[in-house]
């Protein structure tokens, strides 16, 4: 029995999230079904992040144990061949038995894409949030600066899933604006349910002038979900990267083409 780590991507529009749910298609179920077939016995998969329904991934990481005598590259090819076309596998590597895709992660990076143009992009429209409202970019960046650090993010969590301890650490948050496209990236050690999408929804209200920065400061101290902004659509959110030290990837991991996006 060998423990493996796999670097995968998926189009989340085909799934009801990452985590297995009875009677619903999920990424975890698709992975476990394919690996169990190859293993000729049940394989359980641990994911680095439990993405919600409709959320995508370019850099999801999973770990699992199985018997496989043919080498990791052959396993990668066999796994991808038995998965739906909405899931891709970049690399599969053997790792130490103590490696856990979730617990061993140092941080997770999410990216959210916003389209500000008047026209429609038919090739990318399903993976963008179309938002034509005028934004004050200075206020948007000031908002992202405010959420950095260790805060109580109770106001930025789906109410039904609020844990006893909602304190989380945002390591970095930034906004890149290229013509009509805005990419927001947020790096944190862990996240609450819907946290990134509520952050983006609150940033939208600040940048559009419907909410002040002092209000955000209060939200980070004692806010409730009702006081924060809306939960923006899932289709524009990507689990972008998961960081480990040392990195398990032997081929460099993340494709260089990601630097273009």
Automatic annotation (TrEMBL):
One Gene Ontology term from the biological process aspect of the record: tRNA pseudouridine synthesis
A molecular function GO annotation: RNA binding
Binding site for substrate: 110
Keywords for the protein's UniProt record, in alphabetical order: Isomerase, tRNA processing
Top-rank taxon: Bacteria
Family: Belongs to the tRNA pseudouridine synthase TruA family.
Subunit structure of this chain's protein: Homodimer.
Protein name as it appears in the record: tRNA pseudouridine synthase A
Organism phylogeny: Bacteria, Thermotogati, Synergistota, Synergistia, Synergistales
Encoding gene per record: truA
């Amino acid at each position: 029995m060998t423990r493996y780590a796999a670097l995968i991507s998926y189009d989340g529009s085909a799934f009801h999230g990452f985590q297995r749910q009875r009677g619903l298609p999920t990424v975890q179920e698709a992975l476990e079904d394919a690996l169990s077939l190859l293993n000729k016995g049940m394989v359980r998969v641990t994911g680095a992040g439990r993405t919600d329904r409709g959320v995508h991934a370019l850099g999801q990481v999973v770990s699992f144990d199985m018997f496989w005598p043919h080498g990791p590259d052959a396993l990668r090819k066999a796994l991808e061949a038995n998965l739906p076309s909405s899931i891709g596998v970049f690399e599969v590597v053997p790792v130490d038995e103590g490696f856990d895709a979730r617990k061993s992660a140092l941080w997770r990076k999410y990216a959210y894409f916003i389209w500000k143009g008047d026209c429609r992009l038919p090739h990318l429209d399903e993976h963008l949030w179309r938002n034509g409202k005028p934004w004050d970019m200075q206020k948007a960046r000031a908002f992202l600066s405010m959420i950095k650090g260790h805060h109580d993010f109770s106001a930025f969590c789906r109410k039904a899933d609020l844990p006893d301890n909602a304190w989380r650490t945002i390591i970095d948050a930034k906004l890149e604006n290229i013509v009509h496209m805005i990419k927001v990236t947020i790096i944190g050690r862990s996240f609450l349910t819907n946290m990134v999408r509520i952050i983006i929804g609150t940033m939208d209200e600040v940048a559009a002038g419907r909410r002040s920065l002092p209000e955000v400061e209060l939200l980070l101290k004692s806010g409730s979900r009702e006081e924060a902004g809306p939960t923006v659509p899932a289709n524009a959110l990507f689990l972008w990267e998961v960081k480990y030290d040392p990195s398990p990837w032997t081929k460099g991991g993340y494709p260089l083409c990601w630097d273009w996006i």
